[in-house]
Amino acid sequence: MLDRTDPEGEIAKAAAKYSNWGRWGEDDVRGTVNFLTEVKRREAAALVRRGVSFSLAQSFDMNGPQKGWRRRTNPVHTMLDTGTDAALGNQGFPHGIGGADDVIAMPLQCSTQWDGLGHIFDHGKAWNGRPAERVVTSDGDLVTGIETLAAPVVGRGVLLDVGRVIGADGELPDGFAITEAHLTATAEAHGVAIGSGDLVCVRTGQLARVRRDGWGEYAGGPAPGLSFTTAGWLHRTEIAAIATDTWGFEVRPNEFDDAFQPLHQVAIPNMGLLIGEMWDFEELAADCAADGSYEFLLAAPPLPITGAVGSPVNPLALK
Question: What are its GO biological-process terms (predicted)?
């Protein structure tokens, strides 16, 4: 049982028990993505049978969920050259050729994204026990920048549709804490086993609800999500990464009287776990329910933005 009044103590115990510091050497920059081996990728490639693909990304536009918390805004898309410019002959190109160009300005974690290993610290320590001030500076993440994960994040994806299995009408209510028992029951219902190197996708159904009812407090408000007590499961299963359809991955409000994202504090700097947020599983989930197969090849590389502590991503599931 968690002591709701002692987040500091509970986090410290979990951090010590589930630490992966030194597991892949003192110079490691990939954390749990190390579980995703070449053998695992070959096995994952064999899962493609029908040749269908699904984007697991939300849109990147001004209609997104962000409200400005900690200066996170929705993407601002601006045209630099347009068809109007071309038609009016304003571009200065010869023989009638014209074109369009555009630019986008956005926080890297404003829509579907990965949390990099430099995103969260625990008492001033970054992943693998490094001093946070020597890892992430005004020049960016000098050690575990998201570019270090640009190649390896391809492997077996497994959808755990907890919303459909556990929830009513396919959705979990805000504040619902997903426990290990819920994850295990969902995997059994889907006929899949979670193993080393897997890229686990957890659907709560919250995204479907806010699309129907409006964004509301999706960005930072109450949400279903993983319970702090799943730290042991996340460590024991040796998954490479996990992603949810919610803003913050873990249940909100958090399970302590006074805490902010305590599971992040254990999972990222201590476990080295790659975490994805605000993914869109709706089309994939419908297909999985129709054909009864909840495993697929998942390609989800971050953009190789040098020194970034997170990255937008357009994850592709192939079945």
Answer: L-tryptophan catabolic process to kynurenine
